[in-house]
Design brief:
Number of helices of chain A: 13
Mean pLDDT of chain B: 90
Strand order of the largest sheet of chain A: 1-2
Largest sheet of chain A: 2 strands, antiparallel
Oligomer: heterodimer
Largest interface: A-B, 47 and 49 residues
Radius of gyration of chain B: 20 Å
Shape of chain A: globular
CATH class of the largest domain in chain A: Mainly Alpha
Helix content of chain A: 55-70%
Number of helices of chain B: 13
Order of helices and strands of chain B: HHHHEHEHHHHHHHH
Strand order of the largest sheet of chain B: 1-2
Strand content of chain B: under 5%
CATH architecture of the largest domain in chain A: Orthogonal Bundle
Distance between the termini of chain B: 64 Å
Strand content of chain A: under 5%
Number of domains of chain A: 2
Shape of chain B: globular
Chain lengths: ~350, ~325
């Protein structure tokens, strides 16, 4: 113990910061919950300043949960869950996959190519489109993995820049060879009925089944498969993993390919369910959503499904605000960023203790 | 049009397109020299661009006021980043990305609500340095640029001086190289990091304000179009040294300035494939940096690591 200073010199005291040894789980959860509430309060305050009274906001959010809108939420949840899986699989190995939009675009392009060039019989068309989309997304991210391993190119910047490259390639197709001849809008001609993801009853779109299959597959990959075991080893200590003979390269390639495939499938789900054709903006706003979902769910597939659903509610509410209050959709990104900042800050309170010494 | 005219028209535009890259990269270098991995450029440039555009709509005919407001606004927003990474010690990648997407959302919201979208701004006239501007070719290339181009060179000289010739610069670099040693020597790590972030961000804000107020003369949502990410790559390319960053910025200025001139010269190139070139060139440059060996790099030793006194690593 440090002896207390003589009382004459105490003054106002000072703040000190210690590193906490550990904190009970309920207190940790309380800190995360409090910071989440704090972040949402700031978001509500900003929206109030933008001219949406909190009461109206509450009504809009409640409106999202009516049967009619809930269908939209479930459709929206599918791509969000998939991009969340995409981001989290790469995070598990310490790879920042910020190229989710580019991978979605190439997923969409590969799927649309199957439709446009009429590949394969009608019965297996959707399966073929989905596989092509997964392949497209995986190839687009493996390119970055190659650059990282071979030339030590930083994947954060490379994946972000390749989003722009993918976007302009999409524009090149949509304003050129793939433009819909009938409407002359920058979008492909609509997919035929057997090329679209249809509803399977109870207002649930088959895109959601792909997302659920993705959750199960990702859960198997990271918790049960050999690759998942290697992944945990590599992320804990890459050098040790290499020394004891873990196939670091192979495991990394598989997990990153799976990450890209998830994002590619998200692109496929978006073009084949919501849009029904290749459009300019089907991937907008998914990069940070993927990061957010992976971050909040701590890379756990089951939690990703839950958080993905909640973010889908935010997306649908954002679309409503866009239509009725002319609030730009980028507002959703702003709220997502505030949530991440708030929850990341709670980590500080969990790991440190602030004390007022007098 | 002959080749000579084409070259002069192209290269005369290059300094102006290079300015945002140069200023943003310099701002990032200042922050990263203090040991903070700074990915916020894309977002802070948008803040600078929006506030610059808004201010020039309010104070018509005073572009200098608009650029100052852009610098100030970016500095204020960067305080958020500074608190997140220096005080709260959040992972610097997560914090940087959050700030970028926060700024993208916020600028989109404010720009739309204030109805600043697509409104013509008055801009900034080029400054002819007479009589040098009358020299053929050279006068056009080097002495008929807008004032910010000349100011950028002065800023580079000043920042270089402060970083490498003053006590303040030494402290900032010490904090970035070995925070524990700097702390033991009585240099406040937190204070110098916050200072470096805020000061560097004012340059990033100027870069953004320059895009909206001087180059494009409009505010469009998301108008920086990835230039901030290219600036982040430029810092790696320049190995955290100011003058190579200026050279790299000029290279990217030349590449970006080429795009409209190719089309204007009547050369048939697919437009959207042409627009990919800055991004592909950035990746090519990063491959080149990665392929050669790392000796001589001035990468700060503690880049990306938060400093906690007496904490074991």
């Amino acid at each position: 113990m440090i002896p207390a200073a003589p009382s004459a010199f105490r003054g106002f005291g000072r703040l000190t910061l210690d590193v906490r040894q550990d904190l009970p789980a309920w207190k940790q959860a309380a800190f995360v919950g409090l910071s989440l509430v704090f972040g949402l309060a700031i978001s509500v305050a900003i929206l109030a300043a933008a001219g949406i009274p909190p009461l109206t906001l509450g009504n809009e959010l409640a409106g999202v949960l009516t049967a009619e809108s809930l269908r939209g939420v479930l459709v929206q949840a599918a791509p969000l869950i998939l991009v969340g899986l995409g981001a989290s699989l790469a995070f598990r190995i310490g790879f920042w996959n910020l190229g989710i939009e580019g991978q979605m675009i190439f997923g969409g392009i590969f799927a649309a190519a199957i439709s446009i060039y009429d590949v394969g019989p009608q019965a297996t068309r959707l399966l073929l489109m989905g596989s092509a989309a997964a392949l497209g997304g995986a190839l687009w991210v493996l390119l970055v993995l190659f650059l990282k391993n071979r030339f030590r190119v930083n994947e954060i910047i490379a994946t972000l820049l390749l989003n722009y490259v993918a976007m302009y390639f999409l524009f090149h197709l949509l304003y050129g060879a793939w433009q819909d001849a009938k409407t002359a809008f920058p979008q492909s001609s609509p997919f035929r009925p057997f090329e679209r993801l249809r509803d399977i009853g109870y207002g649930i779109n088959s895109g959601l089944l792909i997302a659920i299959a993705g959750v199960l597959a990702a859960g198997w990959l990271i918790h049960l498969s050999r690759i998942g075991f290697y992944t945990r080893f590599i992320s804990a200590n890459p050098r040790m993993a290499k020394i004891v003979g873990v196939p670091v390269q192979t495991a990394t390639i598989w997990i990153i390919a799976a990450s890209g495939a998830c994002s590619g499938l998200a692109g496929f789900v978006n073009v084949a369910s919501q849009e029904g054709r290749l459009t300019q903006s089907f991937s907008n706003g998914y990069v940070f959503s993927g990061v957010l979902i992976a971050f909040l769910s701590r890379n756990d597939p089951i939690v990703i499904a839950v958080v993905g659903f909640l973010i889908a509610v935010l997306f649908i509410a954002g679309q409503t605000l866009q239509v009725f209050y002319q609030i730009p959709f980028t507002m959703v990104q702003m709220i997502e960023a505030i949530i991440v900042m708030a929850v990341a800050s709670s980590e500080f309170m969990i790991r440190h203790r602030i004390r007022w010494l007098r | 049009m002959n080749l000579g005219d084409f070259l002069i028209n192209w290269l005369a535009n290059a300094p102006a397109t290079a300015v945002p890259y140069a200023l943003a990269a310099l701002g990032l270098i200042v922050a990263e020299r203090s040991g903070v991995l700074n990915l916020t450029a894309e977002g802070l440039m948008l803040i600078g661009a929006l506030v610059g555009a808004g201010t020039s709509l309010l104070f018509v005919g005073h572009p200098a006021v608009a650029l100052l407001a852009a610098m100030l606004a970016a500095s204020v927003v960067s305080l958020l980043f500074a608190v997140l990474v220096v005080v709260l010690r959040i992972n610097q990648v997560i914090a940087g990305l959050s700030v970028v997407f926060f700024c993208q959302g916020l600028t989109g919201l404010i720009g739309t609500l204030a109805k600043w979208q697509n409104k013509q701004l008055s801009g900034l006239a080029p400054l002819k340095i007479w009589p040098l501007s009358e020299i053929p070719v050279i006068g056009r290339l080097f002495f008929t640029q807008d004032p910010v181009v000349y100011l950028t060179i002065l800023i580079f000289i000043a920042v270089n001086f402060i970083l490498f010739k003053t006590m303040l610069g030494l402290r900032i670099r010490a904090v970035g190289e070995n925070p524990a040693a700097a702390d033991a020597a009585g240099v406040s790590v937190a204070l110098h990091r916050i200072l470096a972030i805020v000061a560097g961000s004012s340059l990033i804000g100027l870069a953004g304000g320059y895009i909206s107020v001087v180059s494009v003369k409009l505010w469009v949502t998301g108008m920086t179009g990835g230039r901030g990410w290219i600036a982040v790559a430029l810092v790696v390319f320049a190995r955290w040294a100011p003058w190579p960053a200026l050279a790299g910025a000029l290279l990217f200025g030349c590449i970006e300035a080429l795009i409209p001139h190719i089309a204007a010269a009547g050369i048939q190139v697919p437009q959207y494939l042409m627009l990919m070139t800055p991004y592909l060139a950035t990746i090519a440059v990063m491959i080149w940096v990665g392929a050669k060996d790392r000796r001589g790099s001035q990468e700060p030793g503690a880049l990306g690591q938060p400093h906690v006194r007496e904490e074991r690593r």
